[in-house]
Design a protein that fits this description.
The structure holds two protein chains of two kinds.
Chain A (H helix, E strand, L loop, with lengths): L2 H6 L1 H29 L7 H19 L2 H25 L4 H24 L25 H5 L4 H19 L1 H11 L1 H6 L4 H28 L10 H11 L4 H23 L6 H5 L1 H12 L22
Helix pairs in contact in A: 2-7, 2-10, 2-11, 2-12, 3-4, 3-5, 3-10, 3-11, 4-5, 4-10, 7-8, 11-12, 11-14
Chain B lengths: L2 H10 L5 H21 L4 H13 L2 H26 L7 H18 L5 H30 L3 H21 L33 H18 L1 H11 L1 H6 L4 H28 L10 H11 L4 H25 L5 H14 L1 H19 L1
Helix pairs in contact in B: 2-3, 2-14, 3-4, 3-13, 4-8, 4-11, 4-12, 4-13, 5-6, 5-7, 5-11, 5-12, 6-7, 6-11, 8-9, 8-13, 9-11, 12-13, 12-14, 13-14
The chains are: A mainly alpha, B mainly alpha.
Chain lengths: ~325, ~350
């Protein structure tokens, strides 16, 4: 098969389209993570925020009959969780890792409790009709670029727009500069008249909003149903992607695509009946995360004040 | 007051943080009550059903104690990790690998006497759990890989690995289900209370808690481990090997979680099954925090959470409150625990304001 024929092969095209689709939830969560990490706050709670978004988005869409309302509510719910986590991490200066774990565990309980409360113990699973891909006509058949970019649904384009917006914000705007100042040297930033606490709150709220949208992708775009604990560790994978992508929008987007490709690969390998047992395929993204963490060790390029609570000097003792 | 009397009084006072834990639990129950009221059920009825089922009868109490075993063992392991400064959140996966190692050993030793089978199973479980945890420790020490994420990822990998083993090499040839062959009577932990499922795993828990307590507070090694957790730099300056104690924290965690897997397989399931744990390893994180990372506190917290879980099913069937409410309460306990200082400040402020108003 010639190179061009391979690129145009429907199986390969399907793989590319699926890679982008599967990358989107973790890409969004990790993009939001750029904000909170750059501002100096660790957000282990991404997993719980995604789950909250997936749940709220589904319920809102299901009850209202509008996917758009679901998306908006998912973003709002994620942001609300973000601000609550911010209260712990920023205002009362609790251990950010412990707080994050607590939020994740709470999210599992709250979502499954309310799911049962709203839908009861019905056997028929409630569904919504998920977003369908937008028709770009002939563009969808352009090799590689077509399946990657022109066979997606509206949330994927929102996600890609947010990549650009994040890049622009962090690099080109005063707000982005302030965020980085808060993360690198909060004391100096405060001396310059910046409100470090406010910056960090905005960033953790944004992070929650992004993660909530990422969760909504799972329930409103990928499946059309809500399943207990359906994020299945994607929020944690997003944390690894942040490190692999060096907390940079483009890096994060590419790293997320890599994970989406791994996910798509294991799904396709299942269909092709490759000799490898199913479970080894299923663990592929998780193993990759561990390898990434080991290979791109931790925190060399992390903001200097990451994870360290900040006490504004003007505040009462 | 004479000095001895003062000392005795100091000992009688509740251990540091105990009151905070109690308040956090009460506040979580209070919020839980509001949620119960939201589903049009009387909270008192629901909680009464919950605790009556868990503690009100011999059978219920036995079930609660049985449930305490995995929560306490995993919680103790997590505690030792926390004390050494390691956020080992991998108890779930370590428990699964311990369970599958115990199950495989039990099947392989079919026909052997109990004095050989049971210790071999326990040892296999501890080794499997310990090695899996050591892997995360090694990744942290060698590559500075964040153990929080690696241990969680290794949970998923472990559960998939166990799934493969139970669907493949270890599957009972006579069963369509993903489980091992049923274990011999010799491969089962003895029942302590006839007619119930209360098994000897409870004794393992008590021994483990006492060993952890003595090590942490009465041995130089435990002192070093705590220093490493509190301030690695200071420990290093004092000539304490930070890496060694961090690794110890990881390995003890894995060994105890593996032991929990062994206890579930040999005491309850009598075979390794694919759904061995409904998240014991994750709940145990809260147990460790609520127990203020003190071994005896962990025992108490594990018992409370075991009671919650055992009562949850009854609450659901008798009062119509979704049993997952207990998961909400568990999560809220931590948030109230961490926020305790701030909440106490608020309470003090409110009291001050009320006093001013009263004047």
């Amino acid at each position: 098969m010639s190179a061009l024929a391979t690129l145009n092969d429907p199986v390969f095209a399907g793989f590319l389209a699926a890679s982008m689709r599967l990358a989107m939830p973790i890409m969004l969560a990790a993009l939001g993570g750029i904000f909170n990490e750059r501002s100096g706050v660790v957000n282990i709670g991404l997993e719980g925020m995604m789950l909250t978004g997936a749940f709220t988005g589904f319920v809102a869409a299901n009850l209202s009959g509008h996917l758009g309302i679901g998306v908006v509510m998912a973003i709002a719910a994620g942001a609300a969780v973000g601000l609550l986590l911010g209260w712990y991490a920023i205002t009362i200066a609790a251990n950010q890792v412990v707080v994050g774990i607590a939020f994740n565990l709470l999210a599992v309980g709250v979502t499954s409790f309310f799911y049962r409360m709203i839908y009861g113990a019905t056997t028929a699973q409630p569904r919504v009709t998920p977003f369908s891909p937008i028709d770009f006509g002939a563009l969808a058949d352009v090799p590689v670029v077509g399946p990657l970019l022109f066979r997606q649904d509206v949330l994927a384009y929102v996600g890609l727009a947010l990549v650009v917006l994040t890049l622009f914000t962090m690099r080109m705007t005063r707000f982005g500069l302030n965020i980085r100042a808060a993360g690198e040297h909060p004391e100096a930033a405060e001396t310059l008249g910046l409100n470090v606490v406010a910056i960090r709150y905005v960033c953790i709220g944004l992070s929650g909003a992004f993660a909530g949208l990422g969760g909504a992708v799972l329930s409103l775009s990928a499946t059309g149903v809500y399943i207990d604990n359906m994020t299945a560790g994607r929020g944690y994978i997003a944390l690894a992607i942040l490190i692999l992508g060096r907390r940079h929008a483009i890096g994060v987007a590419l790293a997320a695509l890599l994970f989406g490709a791994a996910d798509a690969l294991q799904l396709r390998a299942q269909l092709l009946h490759i000799a490898l047992p199913l479970q080894f395929l299923l663990m592929l993204p998780y193993v990759m995360t561990v390898v990434v963490l080991a290979g791109f060790a931790g925190r060399q390029n992390a903001p200097a004040a990451l994870g360290i609570p900040f006490r504004p000097s003007g505040a009462r003792k | 007051m004479s000095d001895p009397a003062r000392e005795i009084l100091a000992r009688l006072r509740p251990p540091k943080g105990f009151v905070g834990s109690l308040v956090a639990v009460l506040m979580a129950f209070l919020v839980g009550a509001v949620l119960i009221a939201c589903v049009d059920v009387n909270p008192i009825d629901a909680y009464a059903a919950l605790f009556d089922a868990a503690l009100g009868s011999r059978d219920g109490l036995a079930e609660t104690l049985v449930r305490t075993v995995p929560l306490a063992l995993c919680g103790l392991g997590i505690t030792m990790g926390f004390r050494a400064g390691a956020f080992n959140v991998g108890a779930e996966g370590q428990l699964y690998l311990g369970g599958v190692a115990a199950g495989a050993t039990g099947v392989a030793l079919a026909g052997a006497p109990a004095w050989l089978t049971l210790p071999a199973m326990g040892l296999a479980a501890m080794t499997a759990g310990g090695l899996w945890s050591a892997l995360a420790g090694w990744l942290k020490l060698r590559f500075r890989a964040d153990e929080l994420i690696t241990t969680i990822m290794l949970n998923y990998v472990a559960i998939d690995l166990v799934g493969y083993l139970l669907h493949g090499p270890l599957q009972d040839p006579n069963s369509p289900l993903a489980q091992t062959t049923r274990l011999d009577a010799a491969a089962r932990l003895p029942v302590l209370l006839p007619g119930t499922r209360l098994h000897a795993g409870v004794l393992i828990v008590i021994v483990a808690a006492l060993l952890c307590h003595v090590f942490l507070w009465k041995r130089v090694g435990g002192f070093h481990l705590r220093i490493v957790g509190l301030n690695p730099q200071a420990a290093k300056n004092a000539g304490i090997s930070v890496g060694r104690y961090l690794m110890l924290g990881f390995i003890v965690g894995g060994v105890l979680a593996g032991l929990a897997g062994f206890a579930e397989v040999a005491g309850i399931q009598r075979r390794m099954i694919e759904t061995l744990s409904p998240g014991f390893g994750y709940t145990a994180i809260i147990v460790a925090l609520l127990g203020r990372t003190s071994p005896l506190g962990v025992l108490a917290a594990a018992f409370l959470f075991a009671a919650l879980q055992i009562g949850a099913t009854t609450m659901e069937s008798a009062a119509g409150v979704p049993g997952t409410l207990t998961v909400v309460i568990q999560g809220l306990v931590v948030l109230f625990l961490i926020g305790a200082g701030a909440f106490a400040g608020w309470a003090a402020n409110i009291v001050t304001h009320l006093r001013r108003l009263g004047r």
